[in-house]
Amino acid sequence: MESYDCFRDLYLNKDTTPIFNLAHGLITLQQLYGIIPNVFVKGDKAKQCYDSMMRMQREVPDNEKKVPTQKKKE
Q1: DSSP-based helix, strand, coil % in the chain, nearest 5
Q2: Is 68 left (phi over 0), alpha (psi -120 to 50) or beta?
Q3: Domain residues for 17?
Q4: Does residue 1 fall inside a structural domain?
Q5: CA quadruple 5, 8, 10, 13: dihedral positive or negative?
Q6: Which of 18, 27, 36, 43 would be a feasible disulfide site paired with 6, CB 3.0-4.6 Å?
Q7: Residue 33 forms part of a structural domain
Q8: Count of domains in the chain?
Q9: How far apart, in whole angstroms, are the C-alpha atoms of residue 54 and residue 57?
């Protein structure tokens, strides 16, 4: 989740795409490894990311919340 232009996009261009990308990445991590039990936010952008995550989780149906794992070829 590396973005060299994140600061410029957020503060100079007023573009919230990096927040969406971060929220989407965190959702994917949660789908793979389990829900993060305690989330603390500090700052406006962190709050926006958390709100985006909560909104994305509400929009995903329960049967799609798990990312399918690949089966080993034998």
Answers
A1: 60, 0, 40
A2: beta
A3: 6-64
A4: no
A5: negative
A6: 18
A7: yes
A8: 1
A9: 5
